[in-house]
Amino acid sequence: MLNLPKTTEFNRRIPKQKFYENLNITPALKKQFVDVIKIIYWRNKIAATTMNLAPGKNVTEIEVFEVRLNGPKLDEAVLRQIDKEIPYHILFLLEYNKQYQAWIGYKEAAAGTDAFKVSGYYHTDWMAECELPLKVDGLNLDVVYENFVRQLAGDALQSGKTEESLQEAVRRSEQRAQLEKQIAALQAKIRKERQLNKQMEINAVLKQLRTKLKAMSC
């Protein structure tokens, strides 16, 4: 897939039950696996052994998983569950009705453990596979992975800080999303508030949050 070299092809089916049987997950999440996912394929393995790439310090392999769906919407928690169970970095290609979305989460080792933690996911809209804005760019796996994340994140990780690391960009993106959520909640609250003094208090907080949000874009 993605015009990757044949040396990367793996093409192994993964039983979806692997990700919910005998694991402590919610009934709602299990229902997503059972009802929404049709089949999961491990399509490609991008590694120093399969491509002309140097090993990364943090990334040893990038797996490409094709997840075929019965419908156009999949809960992000499903991808997080798969990411949690697989100790490698994963690029997900969701397929529905011959259209694709590419998804990737910022995945890093949790300090002092062998576990991984995944921050928010970035993804494309639905499109033909050949239109997905993805290419292998870099000389080692750390850089290839970082560029995958940036390619899918687009403007979400852009800033005027040229020396900003991927980790810093992701943290800033998360903080920005949180601020936007708080602003939206306060805007809804101020519309419902009837007392003028309360409206003024909320508006003062809104101004502070908007100032912070504007500063994060610089």
Give the low-confidence spans. none
Our estimate of the beta-strand percent is 15-25%
Number of helices: 5
Record the strand order, biggest sheet.
1-2-3-4-5-6
Largest sheet: 6 strands, mixed
How would you describe this structure to a colleague?
- By secondary structure, the protein is of the alpha+beta class.
- It is 37% helix and 24% strand.
- The protein has a 6-stranded mixed β-sheet with strand order 1-2-3-4-5-6, sandwiched between helices.
- The longest helix is centred in the last third of the chain and has 27 residues, at 166-192.
- The two termini are 37 Å apart.
- The chain is globular and about 65 Å long.
Question: Secondary structure elements and their pairing?
Answer:
Elements (H helix, E strand, L loop, with lengths): L8 E6 L12 H10 E11 L13 E9 L6 H10 L3 E8 L2 E11 L6 E8 L17 H13 L12 H27 L3 H21 L2
Parallel strand pairs: 3-4
Antiparallel strand pairs: 1-2, 2-3, 4-5, 5-6
Question: Can you give me a brief rundown of this structure?
Answer:
The protein has 218 residues and is of the alpha+beta class. The chain has five helices and six strands, in the order E-H-E-E-H-E-E-E-H-H-H.
